[in-house]
């Protein structure tokens, strides 16, 4: 998430009253190593609850490999200036480029089948009197690793679909897959989520007592819709570190028709005005769509800091 350097106005939204405090349901668990586990059953559970736990999505050996590959990036991360990530959370981004293990994780057949089953779009349109039918599969929206150290505070409960300004609860834009690299518990900062919240309208706000924690062994994952409320948990331990890696896929059509980053690459775009650079898509769409290494690309690539710069 990001915010303007300058002050922005807001408008009030009427929210519902606080719901009765009851024990939240647990997310259903599936075992990827079980031959009877199938993607269609997982997809059905995700549509019903908003997310699931998939145990043994990758091997502990692959989880350990990814952990080693991300270590230097965690070690050199800077503090998130926007405050969305607590200072005790260290991040690594652009994982497809820096981690062979993450490339393997991104293409695990069961995960791909689940993501395709939820986010594939089929569309029909007329060319004169000919009906054309097309199908598009999801693409990577972002890849990021998280290391939550002792004393880390919980994130604010949020929806990842917020980046796309999506209020259509029947059609989520994104699916996330957060895989544990270390043993993940409620106490050391495991992701918390609100089952069923993917069906809420925009007037319904989330509360902490509605959450359940995704506790995972290394190699297991929480897979969830982009419109389910969730948050990185707080690490209340004194000596445990929680490390996870997130693969976030989105519907394929949410991008520019002409790829401006290839048509006008940064080396060319740097000669243009900030207005042209933002028209090309190098700026941030609030809350945080289009970031680069958790920074505003306009700062990183062109040194632009003005009233439209977003702090991340």
UniProtKB/TrEMBL annotation:
It comes from the Eukaryota. The keyword Secreted does not apply. Its cofactor is Fe cation. The keyword Ligase does not apply. GO terms for molecular function: dioxygenase activity; metal ion binding. Residues 1-34 are annotated as: Disordered. Keywords: Dioxygenase, Iron, Metal-binding, Oxidoreductase. Residues 1-11 have a biased composition (Polar residues). Belongs to the PhyH family. Homodimer. This is Phytanoyl-dioxygenase family protein. It comes from Coleophoma cylindrospora. The lineage of its organism: Eukaryota, Fungi, Dikarya, Ascomycota, Pezizomycotina.
